[in-house]
Amino acid sequence: MTAPRKRPSTASLMLVPFWLVVLVAYVGTMLWTVQISFTASKLLPVDVYVGFDQYHRLFSSTRWLVSMQNAVIFGVLFITGALVLGFLLAVVLDQKVRFENTLRTVFLYPYAMSFIVTGLIWQWLMNPGLGIQKAVRDWGFESFSFAWAVDRDMALYALVLAGLWQASGLVMALMLAGLRGVDEEIWKASRIDGIPAWRVYLFVVVPMLRPLILTAVVLLSISVVKAFDLVVALTNGGPGISSDMPAKFVMDNLFTRQNIGLATAAATVMLITVAAVLVPWIYSEYFRKVRAGAAT
């Protein structure tokens, strides 16, 4: 006797429009972008296929290679710095300090701003004639220099600094929520055994926070890939191309240079790079464990 067929639930039927939007608006447009990257499209998309010519031009471009290198440096420093700084801030606030609510709001407030506002704020702070450098020199420290935004060697690190200022509060909020969920008995046992607090944090608490750390890394990685408005507002990719980013390369070729084929080729490379890094990690962290739990 065959088992009766399960009828789709109301909840499943309600999700059908959502999945249609995902397939058309996201998956469909991604596939269309990949298709255009194989054409000779300039101002408008055309169906003149040129194979991998756009990719050859892309990787022959010094600007693209510099922007990819900048993205790697920015991403490593930004993600690592935000995780470390956010975790340290969360540890401090977890000590039941006075005015905790005020401090938590102050640290989290920059994340409520857009990257364009953050870039404008730090552009002013690093302006040699208006910002911190001028103020300190007016106090008598004539040799002080803090003009990173206009320094070819430091412009990229200016982006990192501005990004850390904005994103560390988000990591702090995530980590603080995780720290408040740590069993108090762990701390009591560590104090009885005489284990230093830093070892408890490093070898016990941090592994317990792995899901939150993964969430923070994914959110920060999205910010790295989308690093366009911060770059435009703070350095505009300069001086020269010293702080250029892949997202700015794509946008410039789409709207300024009218080279859709090259822009979509760059966007496709960004998509493949992000997928190659994040998909295996997310799979190992979540789906493999879910399957292992279901098997047992």
UniProtKB/TrEMBL annotation:
Write the protein's name.
ABC transporter permease subunit
Q: Where are the transmembrane segments?
A: 12-34, 71-93, 105-125, 154-179, 200-225, 260-283
Arranged from A to Z, the UniProt key words for this protein are: Cell membrane, Membrane, Transmembrane, Transmembrane helix, Transport
- Establish whether keyword Transmembrane is in the entry: yes
Which PROSITE patterns does the UniProt record give? ABC_TM1
SUPFAM superfamilies attached here?
MetI-like
Main location (coarse class): membrane
What species was this sequence derived from? Jiella pacifica
Which PANTHER family does the record associate with it? Answer: ABC TRANSPORTER PERMEASE PROTEIN
One GO cellular-component annotation of the UniProt record comes to: plasma membrane
Q: Output the Pfam families linked to this UniProt entry.
A: BPD_transp_1 (PF00528)
